[in-house]
């Protein structure tokens, strides 16, 4: 496993995963635990709010920011997280309602 520092607090994304990473059905248990414990650090490295402290953090920041392929568990887990929140925001819901009938109609 990479030498990326864990955050002081667990990372939660209540907006996109209101029931947590583990119960979302998107992540494995290992990925969910890693995102919870390291999510703040990974987010800060991606947004360049944190200066990388070692080679693993530098590699993560470079791979994520430049979109490079990597076999790193941290890069794969974070990329899966970013892809999941992007996919959730791009959902399109279609309705079969044609607009002619009123839902409030009292005619039975």
- Topology, number of strands: 0
Report the portion of residues in β strands: under 5%
Q: Which whole number gives the mean pLDDT?
A: 84
Q: How many distinct helices?
A: 3
Output the radius of gyration.
20 Å
Task: Provide the helix percentage.
Answer: 40-55%
Can you tell me the overall shape? globular
* SS-derived structural category: mainly alpha
Count of individual domains: 1
Uncertain regions: pLDDT < 50 for 5+ in a row? none
Largest sheet: none
- Along the chain, the helix and strand elements come as HHH
First and last CA, distance: 64 Å
Family: Belongs to the MaoP family.
Pfam families: DUF413
Protein name: Macrodomain Ori protein
InterPro entries: DUF413
Kindly describe this structure.
This protein is an all-alpha fold and 108 residues long. It has one domain (1-91). The chain has three helices and no strands. The protein has helices at residues 29-46, 55-66, 73-89.
Summarize the structure.
The protein is mainly α and 108 residues long. The protein has three helices and no strands.
Tell me the layout of helices and strands:
Elements: H1 29-46, H2 55-66, H3 73-89
Helix pairs in contact: 1-3
InterPro entries: DUF413 (IPR007335)
Protein name: Macrodomain Ori protein
Family: Belongs to the MaoP family.
Task: Supply the key terms.
mainly alpha; globular; 108 residues; Macrodomain Ori protein
């Amino acid at each position: 496993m990479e030498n990326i520092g864990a955050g002081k607090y667990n990372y939660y994304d209540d907006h996109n995963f209101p029931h947590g990473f583990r119960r979302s059905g998107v992540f494995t248990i290992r990925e969910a635990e890693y995102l919870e414990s390291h999510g703040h650090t990974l987010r800060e490295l991606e947004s360049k709010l944190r200066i990388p402290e070692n080679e693993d953090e530098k590699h993560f920041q470079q791979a994520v920011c430049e979109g490079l392929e990597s076999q790193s568990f941290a890069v794969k887990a974070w990329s899966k997280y970013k892809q999941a929140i992007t996919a959730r925001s791009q959902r399109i819901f279609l309705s079969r309602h044609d607009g002619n009938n009123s839902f409030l109609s009292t005619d039975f």
